[in-house]
Design goal:
single chain, 703 residues, alpha/beta, Rossmann fold, Helix Hairpins, Heat Shock Protein 90, 5 domains, 6-stranded mixed β-sheet, 5-stranded parallel β-sheet
Amino acid sequence: MAARLLVVDDEPQFERLILQRFRRSIREGKYEFVFAGNGLEALKLLKQDAAIDMVLTDINMPEMDGLTLVGRIRESYPMLRAVVVSAYGDMKNIRTAMNLGAFDFVTKPIEFPDLEATIGKTLKEAEMLRQAEAAKELKEKNEQLREIDDLKTQFFTNISHEFRTPLTVIYGMAEQIEENPDRWLGRGINMIRRNTQNMLNLVNQILDLRKLEAGKMPLRLIRGDVLPFFHYLFESFHSLAESRDIQMHFLSNEQKLVMDHDPEKLLHILSNLLSNAIKFTPEGGDVYFQVDNVADCLQIRVKDTGIGIPASQLPFIFERFFSGSEDSPSPTYLEGETKPLFGPDTDPFATPPQGSSSSGAKPLRAGRTQHHTGIGLALAKELTTLMDGEIWANSKEGEGSTFTIRIPIRQEAPLQKEGSPMPSFPEAEILVAPPAEPGSPAESAVAGVEAELAELPSLLVIEDNPDVAAYLFACLEGRYQLEHAKDGQQGIDKALEQVPDIIISDVMMPGKNGYEVCQALKTDERTSHIPIILLTAKAGQGSKSEGLSRGADAYLSKPFDKQELFIRLEKLLELRATLQKRYSTMEELPANEDPALRPEDQFVMRLRKAVEANLEDEHFGIHELCREIGLSRTQLHRKVKALTGRPTSGFIRFIRLLRAKKLLAVSDLNISQVAFEVGFRDPKYFSRTFQEEFGKPPIEMRK
């Protein structure tokens, strides 16, 4: 392909000279020449002809000289190379041309072999630049494709997470109904229906986003008072809020607010915001729903006193397929008050504040931690934009979040008929219905049988999804003493207080996730011995490795097989029996390279040393040992029982008897003296307990 050269010179004979001297190269298709009489003409040609490979320009020309042209080329066409051809070959012109960006300089009279060599060198440089630019563009495209691929992978991972959780309930409750229809048919069908609807809602949200993207989702506007609709929607969330001990507050200065609106679109937006506010607000918190007319715009604010959103995640929460884990002041007005929610100094006409998250957030970068699919808020943003509105968020981690929507008030749509019934959205009733809670004592198969329960191992379920927790209780009741924690932090608190025999924890939870729960409990002396099963919808090897690296003893993916769960639990309890065997004699701990045993070895040896240091004190008992070790009576009892199979009092007595056994073998003390030496005040009681422990009376230890 011929190289295209732009020759810029105001002398007509120079054009003829170039065509004459390069006629063979032109004929062979090596070069094509384009001519301009000055710099302005040259710039016009460059704008029209993007295929020009290099420029040969004179210096002294009318309208725009060559040096000015060279500078303009460097600014506008940085990849294009220019060679200055001029009779003014002094060093000043050469230096000026080079400083302005000329690639080379040829003086007149021209030595055409030198000119052709310069052209060849310049074209080679231009080709190398093009290749480098092409490689750079290819690299950038590859990075973009890789990022898109990562986002797709993350999206499908998150989607699978969202599907696996309801599938766990659907699959599991179907089994429960099949095994015991009399007990589980009614409750199980409700759970299956609710979780099926959750899956359907997720699919519908994905399809709605695609429709919005393709511009195929029309607005179905009606003109009417929106306040009754908002009251209706708000009230439908009361039962869900009450099930979590959350107070709901509806605030408005308006008595009537007539405007064009699409009830279905508003339902999708506000249901998402209200359900999120309730989900991420702890028990005893508050959710506020405020409606106002601000600058001829409908303004809706949904505020909660929940966990908030980290500042690093706030700019991305409306981006598709992203959702954070978590700045506005806490509300100060009580339910029913009509004052503005955010204080008397609030500017009602304020635009989204700096640092808040709005619809203009920059795209999500690959690798950002995600806890959910992020479809709900992305859809809320797109639907708000469809109605010519805007949405943004303010949040402060640990204090709560505020989502604000503004939609222009217009009155152009057909008027809603007076007395028309409130639009019905049956799927919304399922969406906001309180989910099942784990089985209460009245529902438990072993309710009232306290003696039997006391013999069962204790198991703590840490799961934020009530339906999944209820299914786990249905599977495990009668096999374990069951306790439920609704989130990671509550799970840590309950584990530290109660020291259960085993723990099942979900991974993806608001606040502390399962990995953090695992790490917190495995690095705490009080709970480091407790086996932990992580249960999650994230089935990738990376997630499994993460869990195991934090100290998890097993990892199950949703939906899980009930029998596999039983086997895992049984095997972990068998390992506890192996641990008890290790500490059964206490005479000398066998060597073990397992790092997981080191904390337990150290704990048991610390207990032993504490008792041995007080052997002669007959009053040294459980209370004193708790004070020495720094654990409560319950915590110490359950940890000692789990490790040694003995109650705390039995452990203390065993250490005393071990020392007595050694004294009987190596000292001349009589049996009564040995008994007093190890803290027994009654030699007869000492002899009896010694024989019960070792199978021989003390006297035979001296033979």
